Amino acid sequence: MAGTTTSTGPSTLVSFDLSVIVGCATELAEATAAVQQTEWQAVPTDIEGPESPHFEQWNELHRRRQRLGEESDRLKRALGAEGPLQLSNLAEDNEPNWHSFEQRFNDTIHGRAVRLALTKLATAAIDLSGFAHWRELHWGMRDTGYRLLMSGLAQLWAGLPEQHRTLLRQNLQRTNEVVGSPIDLTSSPPTYDGPEEIPLDCQYRIYQGYVSCPADYLEHVQVGAIKLVEDGHRKFLRLATLPRFLQMVDEAVPAIEALVQKNYDPAEWGDYYEKAFWALKNLSRAHEVQPREAWPCAALEHRQRIAQSAGILFRWIGGTPFATPTLEEEAHCALSEFRSAAESLCRLQAESHELSEDVQSSGDSVGARISGEPDSRNAIAALLSVFTNGVVDERIEQAANVLQNATLSADDKVKRIDKLIPLPPTASAEDLGKMVGVTKQAILKGSWWLENRKGEKKDEIGRRSARHRERTEGHEPSLRENAEE
Fold it and tell me: Are 217 and 130 in contact (CB under 8 A)?
């Protein structure tokens, strides 16, 4: 921190080096004066690179704005700011700290006139750093910051002790020549006839990390946050398996029931609301985003029912029930539908799990009968794993789910199964048709067959011709020998 602490009774106040602050402020004034709207307003913010006719101007403007941002940060640190001062460097666990500014410098040992001047200078540094940071040129930030900077300098000069003014006259003379400083270096004592406080038209601003932001910044932040949440919902709905989907439903049901039936303590409302709100917002989009893995048709129907009822419940949870009394009746009906669809989905999962266990146990018993040994199922599984490259359990199960998915066409089923388990070249169109339950012609007309097996017949004819030639060449010597004899 650019200052020292001085104990004054029971509290601790901060003492800043005013000469350092004046020096930083004057250099910032020089950097700001080098960027005039009349000179640089016509320079486009988007250029095509070095080939653009505006490249040199744009590069020079970028250099001057960079210096303006650096001088703004120096003034902030001279006034006690700590931590990262750039928006790109901000993080939740590493935010900037500027305690003196938040206290309007009332935690310092300086007099009231100096404290008011320091507040103006700090606010000016915030505005000017915003002008230097954003891609678009917000000239309002530049004008407001420059106005407060010059006013704060004049007010601070008037409040400086004589020994400080003597040391700073040389630097201020240079600044006075460059920017036309309002400071009268010859008057003794100097006078300040500007406003003590920050003018009303300069008081309101939006800033983040002590950098001024455009007027629509909060709107853009909100839109970005909403998009981030929606992307998370879309990813969940796309990747969630049936058990994971049911887990979210089960976790949300108690909170939804408590809010719809108004059966909760006032202290519990916040927790219930948060759980129900985000879960319903997510589940209500389940009809828009389909799962990546293959779900049974019945499961997809129950998923659709959950999504529709969740949409009604979401409007109820986030709405104003006293203004819409009919929505309360709809919410109770939607809750019943939500429960019914969830219970049906649970039963479907349980039946599917039992079926898979029965199939596994049947396979185990068949293996045991074949080998006659208790551990034969492990040997059979090991053999199948070798001959199928280790895809016995996971990929075959996924392929079976694809085969049972009634929403997919025969061509789509073949494509997905081929991605999971490459179909052998010996599999004919008739074999594939029997597998997916269609005719041989349907497979031959599909895009998978045209892309992967087109010309297969010609290749087979060529292979047969080659075999015939090999056989013929093998018999030619013996025929010639017989002719010679």
Answer: no
Write the pLDDT tens digit of every residue in 158-201. Answer: 777 776 666 666 666 655 665 555 555 555 555 677 788 888 88
- Amino acid residing at 15: S
* pLDDT, tens digit, 9 for 90 and up, residues 459-481: 554 555 555 556 555 544 444 44
Residue 200, SS3 per DSSP: helix
**For the chain, first and last CA: distance in Å?**
114
Question: What is the tens place of the pLDDT at every residue in 202-223?
Answer: 888 888 889 999 888 888 777 8
How many Å apart are CA 211 and CA 130, to the nearest integer?
A: 5
Q: Which residue in 291, 319, 290, 284 sits closest to 305, CA to CA?
A: 284
Residue found by looking up tokens 């920050």 in the block? 198
Which of 340, 280, 356 lies closest to 314 in space, CA to CA?
A: 280
Pairing of strands 211-213, 206-208: antiparallel
Cβ burial 191-201 (10 Å sphere, 16+ → b, else e):
ebeeeeebeee
Between these two residues, 453 and 256, which has the higher pLDDT value?
256
CA angle 81, 86, 89 (to 5 degrees): 110
Q: Strands 11-16 and 3-8, how do they pair?
A: antiparallel
425 DSSP assignment: T
The amino acid present at 126, given as its one-letter code, is I
pTM value is 0.53
Instruction: Name beta bridge partners: 6.
Output: 13
Q: Are 363 and 377 in contact (CB under 8 A)?
A: yes
Please give the pLDDT value at position 172. 63
**What whole-number distance in Å separates Cα of residue 201 and Cα of residue 450?**
72
Give the integer Cα–Cα distance in Å for 297 and 294. 9
Residue appearing with tokens 């420059």:
146
Q: Cα–Cα distances in Å, from 359 out to 171, 377, 383?
A: 90, 13, 19
Q: Is 266 exposed, middle or buried (0-12, 13-18, 19+ CB in 10 A)?
A: exposed
Distance CA 478, CA 157 (A): 119
Whole-angstrom distance, CA of residue 195 vs CA of residue 119: 13
- 64: exposed, middle or buried (C-beta count within 10 Å: 0-12, 13-18, 19+)? middle
Q: What is the DSSP string of 2-58?
A: -EEEEEETTEEEEEE-HHHHHHHHHHHHHHHHT--HHHHTTS-S---STTSTTHHHH
- pLDDT (tens digit, 9 = 90+) per residue, 97-125? 999 999 999 999 998 889 999 999 999 99
Whether 14 and 5 have beta carbons less than 8 Å apart is answered as: yes
C-alpha span between 226 and 324 (Å, rounded): 26
